[in-house]
Amino acid sequence: MAAQTLPRDWQLQDGTIRLRPFRFDDVVPFHAMVDVSREVVGRWLAWCNADYDMAAAEQWVARCIQDWPSGQKYACVIEDVRDGSLLGGIGLMIENSPLTHHANLGYWLRSDCHGRGVMTRAARMLAEFGLRELGLPRVHIYALADNIASRRVAEKAGFQFEGVLRRYCKRPDGSASDSAWYSLIAEDLQ
Length: 190
What we know:
Blueprint: E1 12-13, E2 17-21, H1 27-41, H2 54-67, E3 73-80, E4 86-96, E5 101-109, H3 118-132, E6 139-144, H4 148-156, E7 160-170, E8 176-184
Helix pairs in contact: 1-2
């Protein structure tokens, strides 16, 4: 299946949140989101650390903008539709090879937004879009096995638990960790 390029003004929304591509004017609010989330998010994601400065935010946003037309990496911000504030990041990374065709769905949420169902809605919206509109046969999520909050998002979004891959991921300290795997396929949407 060929990569599908989505327009730069593409978006998904449900009346509460909007998913859209990164823009250059997201650098400052994105950095602020990381800044308030280091302690919580940094426990699970190595890049979210004390060294994450404005230059790192600029590089990330520029890479997301550059990668968008490839049809392989759809990195989005999660935006509050009421005031336009950034709530987190989510993305589909598509792998299309002679042996596989699927997408990994990755996400993180600003730490002061946890517990409101934001990420569950965002994960389900983007996964459904991938399955229905992009024609993906499978979307999967993996999380460190002890990251209960991330695993709960996958479960609440309707993903099916498939098992634990031993020593699949790295922790922020570089040590190997087990990873819990979840998937959603088109038949699960019915």
